[in-house]
Design goal:
The protein has 172 residues and is α+β, with helices and mostly antiparallel strands. The protein has a domain of 60 residues. Helices cover 31% and strands 41% of the residues. The protein has 4 helices and 9 strands. Strands 1-2-3-4-5-6-7-8-9 form a 9-stranded antiparallel sheet, sandwiched between helices. A hairpin with a 4-residue loop joins strand 4 and strand 5. The two termini are 30 Å apart.
């Protein structure tokens, strides 16, 4: 998560100093979204009681998700995250040690993916099966990492601002 925080700081610095670097910032956001989904995995960190979490983070979480009562908190190297299920979607909200929200990850199946994105994936990968989606919200951007099976390959497709790119392909 330390790398995440450094990358976020770099993104803000680049975006604030030069508007012409917008494409560079967008590339960093896309890369950071991929990194964020790998940083927060079920095997990372240790589950902890909310009483051990930064009060700023707890207050922010309760403000954003006032109806959630069953969140689980996990400590990681440079902060912590809350995870919970809501409307059939697994949500993870990451905070730094000072309690500032860094990013959110929503994980769900194809039936919850926006119709236009689902249709675009199926148009570009005609005989694919959409297995899983990680929707990352970071720096006011939304990046979708869509895991599909196409023939004998498992692929990860990244979609952001209408741009689609295959970022990983493995033989099944």
């Amino acid at each position: 998560m330390k790398k995440t925080l450094l990358a976020i700081a770099a993104i803000y610095a680049v975006g604030a100093t030069n508007h012409a670097n917008a494409q560079l910032v967008m590339n960093d956001v896309r890369s950071l979204a991929s990194f964020a989904t790998r940083t927060i995995s079920p095997l990372d960190g240790e589950h902890t009681d909310a009483s051990t979490i930064n009060l700023t983070a707890i207050n922010d979480f309760k403000k954003r998700f006032s109806t959630v009562e069953n969140e689980n908190w996990v400590k990681v190297n440079d902060g912590f995250y809350a995870k919970f299920m809501q409307d059939g979607i697994q949500k993870k909200i990451a905070y730094n040690k000072k309690g500032k929200m860094m990013f959110t990850i929503l994980e769900y199946n194809a039936d919850k993916l926006a119709k236009d994105i689902r249709e675009s994936i199926r148009y570009n990968y005609m005989d694919c099966s959409i297995n899983h989606i990680s929707e990352v919200h970071i720096n006011d951007k939304v990046v979708y990492l869509i895991h599909i099976t196409a023939g004998n390959s498992i692929k990860t497709i990244r979609v952001c601002d209408g741009d689609m790119q295959e970022v990983e392909s493995l033989k099944a």
